[in-house]
Amino acid sequence: MSADGIVIDEQNNTLTIARRYPAAAGRVWAAWTDPVAVARWWGPHGWTTTVERMDVRPGGQWRFSMAPDDGSADAVHIVVTYREVRPHERLRYLDQFATADWTITGDGVSTDVAFTADGTGTRVAITAVFADRDALHQAVALGMAEGYQEALARLGTIL
Asked: Which residues pair with 139 in a beta bridge?
C-alpha cells in the first residue's frame, strides 16, 4: 500500500491504515511517543484521551483512557505493551482493553506502526493483526478503521 487509506485483508485478518505527513520522521515519532503530544491527537473526533503512563521501551506500557466529550458513554481503558521499539522507524505492541483499575480483559490486537521517511515527509502505516476473521469483523463493525483515520487526521493538525 503506497497511498493513504484503509485496507481490510480478510485472508490475513489485518486492518492497515496509512497516512503521509510533510514532516520529518523524528517529529512524527515524537508525536507518537510523547504523552502530552499523544493526548492531543489520539482517538476519534469528539473523544478525549488521558494518558496514565507511557513507557516506550520493549516491555514498557502505555496506559490510557478515552472518553466521549459529550459524556454519552463510559471511558474505555487500554493497555499497550511495547514489544519492539526502533526510534523513528517502528513500534510493535499488543493493544488490550482493560478495566478502570487497568486489569487486562481479552487477548488484544498485535499492532505494528511503521514510520517511513522519504526525504520530503514521513508515511505512517498501522497494521493491526487480529486472532481471526470474526475479531477483524467485530473491530471493523465497531468503527476501528474510521477511529484510526480520524486520529491520524488529528495528528496531521499538530504536525
From this structure: none
What b/e readout covers 15-36, taking b as 16+ CB neighbours within 10 angstroms?
Answer: bbbbbbbebbbeebbbbbbebe
CA 112 to CA 155: how far, in whole Å? 17
Task: Note the CATH architecture for domain 5-158.
Answer: 2-Layer Sandwich (3.30)
Q: All 3 cell numbers of residue 104?
A: 487486562
**Structural domain boundaries in the chain:** 5-158
- 5: confidence class by pLDDT, cuts 50, 70, 90: confident
Residue with cell 496531521: 156
pLDDT per residue over 28-57, tens digit each? 999 999 999 999 999 988 999 999 999 999
Give yes or no for a contact between 55 and 38, defined as CB atoms under 8 angstroms apart.
no
Predicted TM-score of the model (pTM): 0.93
CA dist 142 and 92 (Å) reads: 23
